[in-house]
Inverse folding.
């Protein structure tokens, strides 16, 4: 057969095992294409029982063709997973592939359900973002499936073997934190173009994605949106929940964005002329009024707390811009912002507007209010706040819940919005016709002018704001080759010592194969703390932390309670009977909130004791149909020591 050379090295038994493998490949970009090609050449999932399920919700862009070699010009606009499947089947017609376009996320757990995960032999990641990697890793840990993780960054690449109960999982490692500019530098004291571009992208996401998305949710859900938000702040009896204060703060921020989108006189638009007028007001706000306020609050001769000049390097003293319709950068901002606003609001008859003369005609009718700086405005200077100021801010939080209640009552009734539909935008760097980079690059260059920072051209802005690191085919082919070597070891069911993680940098050149790290173990320990380190630094308190099981546990371990749909009281009794410990409280995450099923200090939850677990769950989610959930339990032993446990799974 075509696999004879491979059989000579690995043997027929392993070749047959490879052919019958059932694997899930998440992502079908640069890494996915190379892995797919390798699988076809190896005969992976080419047997009668084999199957590779591949998913990627992205479509092929022209920029992908230089590094994703399964795609051709005629594939542009097609689904990556489908196009790659067709190409690979041309290489080996025996390969079994189920191509999907569903993103792997909490929203698709009905698609990739328990039966799907339990039927897999393993998972191979070919992803390009940390959030998706962490989610897939969490699912592999939960279902006890091996995961081969890999990634590239220019000439650098890595492979991590995640083997159940034998190695650390992907989420168990923490990458070094990337150094980011402080918020005060981005908003008030930028000193390089990267700061300006970061703020431009942040404002794009805030206005056209986050705020528009929140307003769209209200338009779709109506009262459901209000009740969902209220349910995170107040309990069924109107009492403020333990996390209610934080939820109220979040609600006020969200509702502020919704008001900005839906209220008259705020930011709602109906015509292209109103979009241009809105963009002109935003220009004044960003590049004139905010700068005038900053200069007023922090004049050029201002001194800091130590008496040194406040405007010392790297700070740059800014100057406000005066709008000029003849300046192409000024017009670039108006054009980009107006078109994006029109896209978000689905303006009737919208067509991309790039004619500067038409826009100038619309601008001639726009009146901009004169700005007067405020003496009460607070500027984040990045310096330490005077003693006592923090406490004053804490006192003000008492009104946060009342403010949330008032804001929820001020939402405009859906009937008054005329069937408005909003379309949030997701940043896409590869499409130069969508105005995304037009807005961000013009925003950044105008911001740079405010602070006398050197401007950049459109391509440079795109590289920096899009965080583009050129992908190298050499790196991709190398790292996927090593992934396939580890995959063979998985099929051989080798010992932990057989597996190797990889760290490589082709530019140095440097290649290191490392023994995978064992999973960290939570063990019993004594925690020492100093309650009053200032006045009594000599006094220490000790707290004993006990684990269940007593010899410790790892992230791969679980406590499974499979006794049917017991009552809350029976659940509490189970801990006492089976393990000799007390469960003093437990909650279950339902939606975005942790709902208390029982808490010895919350009188209202004691009414749940005679109820079955499913009955309590249905109080919060009437359409509950799950076979299990994962309660978060607070456990104590007979000596009142805290007991740490692995994840608890309650099955019905």
């Amino acid at each position: 057969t075509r696999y004879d050379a491979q059989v000579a090295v690995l043997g027929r038994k392993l070749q047959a095992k490879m052919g019958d493998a059932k694997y899930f490949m998440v992502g079908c970009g640069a890494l996915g294409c190379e892995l797919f090609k390798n699988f076809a050449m190896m005969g992976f999932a080419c047997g009668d029982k084999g199957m590779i399920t591949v998913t990627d919700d992205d479509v092929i862009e022209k920029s992908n063709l230089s590094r994703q070699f399964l795609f051709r010009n005629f594939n542009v606009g097609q689904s990556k997973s489908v196009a790659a499947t067709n190409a690979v089947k041309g290489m080996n017609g025996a390969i079994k592939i189920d191509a999907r376009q569903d993103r792997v996320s909490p929203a698709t757990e009905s698609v990739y359900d328990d039966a799907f995960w339990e039927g897999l032999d393993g998972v191979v990641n070919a992803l390009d973002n940390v959030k998706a990697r962490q989610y897939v890793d969490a699912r592999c840990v939960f279902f006890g499936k091996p995961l081969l993780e890999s990634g590239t960054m220019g000439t650098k690449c890595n492979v991590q073997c995640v083997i159940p109960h034998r190695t650390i999982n992907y989420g168990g490692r923490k990458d070094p934190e990337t150094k980011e500019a402080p918020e005060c530098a981005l908003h008030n004291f930028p000193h390089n173009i990267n700061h300006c571009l970061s703020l431009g992208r942040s404002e794009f996401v805030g206005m056209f994605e986050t705020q528009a998305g929140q307003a769209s949710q209200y338009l779709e859900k109506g009262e459901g949106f209000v009740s969902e938000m209220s349910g995170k702040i107040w309990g069924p009896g109107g009492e403020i929940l333990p996390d209610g204060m934080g939820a109220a703060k979040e609600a006020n921020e969200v509702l502020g964005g919704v008001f900005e989108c839906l209220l008259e006189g705020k930011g709602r638009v109906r015509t292209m002329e109103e979009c241009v007028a809105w963009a002109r007001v935003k220009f004044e706000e960003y590049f004139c009024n905010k700068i005038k306020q900053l200069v007023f609050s922090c004049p050029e001769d201002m001194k800091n707390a130590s008496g040194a000049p406040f405007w010392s390097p790297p700070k740059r003293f800014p100057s406000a811009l005066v709008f000029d319709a003849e300046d192409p950068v000024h017009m670039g901002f108006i054009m980009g912002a107006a078109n994006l606003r029109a896209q978000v609001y689905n303006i009737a008859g919208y067509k991309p507007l790039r004619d500067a003369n038409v826009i100038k005609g619309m601008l001639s009718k726009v009146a901009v209010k004169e700005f007067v700086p405020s003496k009460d405005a607070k500027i984040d200077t990045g310096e330490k706040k005077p003693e006592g100021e923090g406490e004053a801010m804490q006192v003000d939080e008492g009104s946060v819940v009342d403010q949330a209640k008032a804001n929820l009552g001020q939402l405009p009734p859906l009937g008054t919005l005329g069937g408005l539909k909003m379309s949030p935008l997701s940043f896409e760097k590869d499409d130069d016709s969508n105005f995304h980079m037009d807005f961000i690059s013009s925003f950044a260059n105008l911001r740079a002018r405010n602070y006398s920072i050197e401007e950049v051209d459109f391509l440079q802005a795109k590289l920096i704001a899009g965080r583009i690191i050129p992908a190298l085919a050499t790196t991709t082919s190398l790292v996927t080759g090593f992934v396939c070597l580890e995959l063979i070891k998985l099929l051989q069911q080798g010992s932990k010592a057989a597996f190797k993680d990889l760290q490589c940098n082709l530019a140095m050149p440097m290649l290191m194969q490392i023994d995978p790290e064992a999973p960290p173990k939570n063990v019993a320990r004594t925690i020492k703390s100093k309650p009053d380190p200032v006045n009594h630094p000599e006094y220490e308190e000790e707290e004993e932390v006990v684990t269940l099981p007593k010899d410790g546990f790892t992230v791969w371990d679980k406590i499974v309670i499979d006794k049917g749909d017991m009552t809350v009281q029976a659940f509490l009794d189970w801990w006492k009977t089976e393990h000799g410990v007390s469960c003093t409280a437990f909650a279950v995450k339902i939606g975005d909130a942790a709902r208390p099923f029982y808490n010895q200090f919350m009188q209202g939850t004691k009414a749940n004791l005679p109820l079955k677990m499913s009955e309590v769950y249905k109080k919060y989610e009437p359409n509950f149909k799950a076979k299990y959930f994962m309660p978060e339990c607070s456990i104590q032993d007979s000596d009142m020591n805290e007991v740490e446990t692995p994840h608890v799974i309650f099955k019905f």
In short: The chain is about 40% helix and 15% strand. The two ends are 50 Å apart (CA to CA).
